[in-house]
Amino acid sequence: MNEKNSLGLNKCFLDLDDPFELFERWFDEAKKNEINDPNALALGTASKDGIPSVRMVLLKGFDKEGFVFYTNLNSQKGNQIKENPNATMCFHWKSLLRQIRIVGVLSQVSADTADKYYNSRGYESRIGAWASKQSSVLKNRNELLDSLEAFRKKYNDQDKVPRPSHWSGFNLKPSSIEFWLDGDNRIHERLKYILNENNEWTKSLLSP
Questions:
Q1: Cα–Cα distance list, 171 to 5, 101, 146, 153, 205 (Å)
Q2: Is 121 a catalytic residue?
Q3: Which one from 55, 101, 141, 186 is the annotated catalytic residue?
Q4: Domains (range + CATH), the chain
């Protein structure tokens, strides 16, 4: 028989009051087991009119303040976030049969934080941030390739490529975090943490 926690869930849910600690444990397991991009997540945003959009992005950092990813601020997601900062993230780790859903509000990271991450990227990735007008229509592929070459010439010193003002990161500060484990016959196990008005996390079991 599988070991259970105090709520009757699989022991992988542990018995923790802090969802960030549980996220870190599950994320560590994903990094050991997922073949590609264990930090990949589906990011859901919506326009001011409520029209949703979802795409895959990469988690680049997290702490008790939230979950961080980076993007072109003038992209579709960047423009939607300006209009409506409410967003959701979903991690799905098929190898572990686990999923985590996070709901919260996005805010832009500080310039220092964005600079630090940008400068850790490879040269071609930094050039790409300049060359690609993310989500805009291309006349043809050569338009992008020509732009890449032009910025390589402009910033030919690989140690001196400044961060574009239109490129930064966002932090999702969560109001709820749900942990999901696949179960036999679709009887899944779900545990949801919600941040209450006293800024404390409460947790509840959810029906599958």
A1: 31, 15, 33, 33, 27
A2: no
A3: 186
A4: 11-114+170-206 (2.30.110.10)
